[in-house]
Amino acid sequence: MLNLLESNSPPSVRRIATEMRLIGWTGFWLQMFFGFIPISFAISFLFIPRNPNKLGGSGSVAFFFGYASLIALIFTLYWCFRYTRIGQRLPNPDIRPSRVEVIRTLSIGLLVNLAGMIFAVIVAMYQVNNLLVKLLSLPQGSSTIFTPTQGAAVMARVPITPLQMMGLQAVISAIAAQIIGLIVSLWLLHRVNQRPAMEIKENYDNE
Question: Rounded to two decimals, what is the model's pTM?
Answer without folding.
Answer: 0.73
